[in-house]
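Protein data:
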Amino acid sequence: MRYDYLIVGSGLFGAVMSYCLSKAGKRCLVIDKRAHIGGNVYTENVNGINVHKYGAHIFHTSDKRVWNFVNSFVEFNRYTNSPVANYHGKIYNLPFNMNTFYAMWGVVSPKEAQAKIEEQRADYIAELHRQGVFEPRNLEEQAISLVGKDIYYTLIKEYTEKQWGRNATDLPAFIIKRLPVRLTYDNNYFNDLYQGIPIGGYTALIEKMLGDTEIRLEADYFADRDYFDSIADRIIFTGEIDRYFDYRFGHLEYRTVTFETKLLEGVANYQGNAVVNYTDGETPYTRIIEHKHFEFGTQPDTVISHEYSKEWHHGDEPYYPINDKRNGELYEKYRALAEQQDRVIFGGRLAEYKYYDMHQVIARALDVADKITANN
């Protein structure tokens, strides 16, 4: 069998490309090393609850083209992302808003909250200036310069250090370019026009995108690379770009995430919210996810996942690119190689070494597909 396109990976980028290319009359083969489709957005049904197996995924976008595209496959519910933070047993709303500031300082007006933040910012910036520092040198200095010490030490510092496995003073300032401060009582984490969860889970969305395209699961491209390269005219590659080039310039670095997922039978409601972040350093996990709340579940049981952020080692599942100077320069070398490939198109978080939200992956795939089909 000869194919027009081999698509390596059945996550969002691969699924969108499969749909668009198949619609344009191209014969596609989708392969995935996992035993299921969907990549990291895969959801599995446990006792009637759609469990986000690889972490919480909340779809949000202001791109009407993307919103209309995903809604052409499945219906989305009205879920609004409103996470809360637990710091040593005290609860704060996220993002930083009037509810947060009331819990922290007892202020009730935007004017009071703004004055408190500005006072702390000004004091800290003046302190840096006395030390001869006029530009933040690291994440800690950047964050306190933006929101002050109380918010930083309660909700940012220890949580960020758990996420990255590094001291905040060792992380670059550009990781936090801005911190959203909202002087309203609105707990909606996102500002986007559209937001929700696919009814029936993300697996249903991917299944509809893939349609009748031929799929081979537990098929590792690198285990039989010569064969897979030989059966298609072109390749859509969504895996790690450095691995594709046999680590010619060295390994790119990632953070990885692991999950401890439990079915709690007879527990209808464990924490009252889909996502609770634990911002203290003593708690080993970063957050607890209670999956049923993504779809307003009323099942008699619940499923929770403790999420842990860990250092990535070769062979681990890569999740988040390390956005520092060394990795940025290394990726640019691989990107230059990728641009020289006539048969291969690189796309998605791993292939582009970029932290993409779901809507950004879809928009990117739609743009690439439009370019391909316009030229063929």
Q: What stands out?
A: Residues 3-80+193-252+324-374 form a domain with the Rossmann fold fold (CATH 3.40.50.720). The chain has a mean pLDDT of 96.
